[in-house]
Amino acid sequence: MDTVPSSFIVKKWVDEGNRNVIFYKDRYYLNPAYEEVHDLILNVVSEIAQNYKIDGLHMDDYFYPDHVDDSFDKMDYMYSETDLSIEDWRRNNVNKLVEKIDRTLNRIDSSLWFGISPAGNLEYSRDSIFGDVEKWVDEEWVDYIAPQIYFGYTNKSRPYAATLQQWSDVVEGTDVQLIVGLGAYKINQNNGNSDDEEWIHDSQILIKQIQDAQDASNYTGYALYSYHSMFRAEADDVQAVMSQLEDIKSLSE
Question: How far apart are CA 147 and CA 69, in angstroms?
Fold first, then answer.
């Protein structure tokens, strides 16, 4: 934060000890509980939408800190005098921001898309970082979701097939589109997960996941994370990655 110009509003909030910014576990977080924070984010959204030729706006999966404890915002919760539990209050804070972003973009240009890429574990998103994806979808505040289903078929806690079906069910009966996020970065990598062997030894895992996604009832498209990982040049990875990339290319031929 020392290198940030003093004229920057977030730096001013930090210097003033303003609760709009919270220092928590070695990081600074904008606090979703406050309208000033919403206004700052909406100003950024407006600037991008009005001044740049974009097709839409995409958000990643970061909302509240992972497994945040009450020390983060207990004071803000008490001042709010809400009847909600602290968990529901946090979800509501994020929900209000998501709705505002949707309204802001629609006011500027209704053809712009707005989508979010939530964590692939739906319960984790809702209960640990307070991203209430089902609410966003039901209210159709987003045009699409791109859940990060970065799991293999043998993953013990989130096997790919069952997780894909869960996300398909989330958008069922709505106009929200499902773009399936796939973990290309896991090819030939040991990440200490229960499905590592599959990502290392199954040379067809991505093509199978794409085909299963295409067969899902609410499928719109897929996205690979990350682009860089599909073109990395480490000697041990080149053959494994390029083989799967060629298989993916063949789908469109």
Answer: 25
- H helices of 63-159, in order, are 74-80, 86-108, 122-127, 133-139
Is-contact 97 59, C-beta < 8 A? no
- Taking the mean position of all CA atoms in its chain, how far away is CA 231? 23
DSSP for 144-203, written as a single string: EE--B----TT-SSS-HHHHHHHHHHHHTTSS-EEEEEE-GGGTT---S-TTHHHHHH-T
pLDDT of residue 253: 61
Average pLDDT over residues 237-242: 73
Question: In this structure, what token pair is assigned to residue 71?
Answer: 């020390």
Q: Please answer whether residues 196 and 190 qualify as being in contact, where contact means their C-beta atoms are separated by less than 8 angstroms.
A: yes
pTM: 0.92
Of 174, 176, 159, which is closest to residue 212 (Cα–Cα)?
A: 159
What does DSSP say about strands 113-116 and 56-59: parallel, antiparallel, or unpaired? Answer: parallel
